[in-house]
Amino acid sequence: MPYTPQILAFAGSTRRESFNKKVLRIAAEGAREAGAEVTFLDFKELPLPLYDGDLEAEGGIPPNALRLKALMKGHQGFLIASPEYNSSITAVLKNAIDWASRPMEGEKPLECFAGKAAVLMSASPGALGGLRSLSHVRSILMNIQTMVLPQQVAVPRAHEALTEEGRLKDAKQDASIKGLGKTLADMLAKLA
């Protein structure tokens, strides 16, 4: 039976019409076409409290953070779309990473991240397309033992680049985003 990569796709945005969620769906399409199963996670549907050591000490890891950890453990790879807020990553994305990195009894250190592979993308109305956030996400993930593939795409002027249906108007750009999903799926298949 052939190996089917399991990929978790999420964006560091909760906005309904997020540009990053739209490009993430394009990348997920590329991963599916390459034979992967993709689970799309929307942080709006999985609200997490701000990470607080006192909250964790008093009540343990919150239920939605436990759900996030279970999702991450059940997937070998991550497609991550990172909006750029003030030249860095969003609080939503950083908070999710922080909660998922919290150790639980009987769990290996950084079990949600260690040995996993990720591909990054961003989209922004700005001229750099959210590019500055990607280096921060890359640094964080590599420090918690996630292999971040070198391929990445930043979509500038996303408000003009995307159609109402959520496709990129430029066919080459659309293919580049789809290619990220394919690259991750192919890499996970090779690693299996």
Compose a concise summary of this entry:
By secondary structure, the protein is of the alpha/beta class. It is built from seven helices and five strands.
Overview of the molecule:
The chain is α/β, with parallel strands linked by helices. It has a single domain (about 5-190), classed as Rossmann fold. The chain has helices spanning about 20-35, 55-60, 65-75, 90-100, 130-145, 160, 170-190, and strands spanning about 5-10, 35-40, 75-80, 115-125, 145-155. It has a five-stranded parallel sheet with strand order 2-1-3-4-5, with helices on both faces. α1 (about 20-35) packs across α7 (about 170-190). The longest helix is centred in the last third of the chain and has 21 residues, at about 170-190. The radius of gyration is 16 Å and the shape is globular. The model has no long low-confidence stretch (mean pLDDT about 95).
Span between termini: 13 Å
User: Could you state the oligomeric state of the chains shown?
Assistant: single chain
Strand content: 15-25%
Given as residue ranges, the uncertain stretches (5+ residues, pLDDT < 50) are: none
- Say how many strands there are: 5
CATH superfamily: Flavodoxin domain
Shape: globular
Mean of pLDDT: 96
What are the SSEs and their pairings?
Elements: E1 6-11, H1 19-33, E2 37-41, H2 53-59, H3 63-73, E3 77-81, H4 91-100, E4 117-123, H5 131-143, E5 147-155, H6 158-161, H7 171-191
Parallel strand pairs: 1-2, 1-3, 3-4, 4-5
Characteristic terms for this protein:
42% helix; 192 residues; five-stranded parallel beta sheet; Rossmann fold; 7 helices
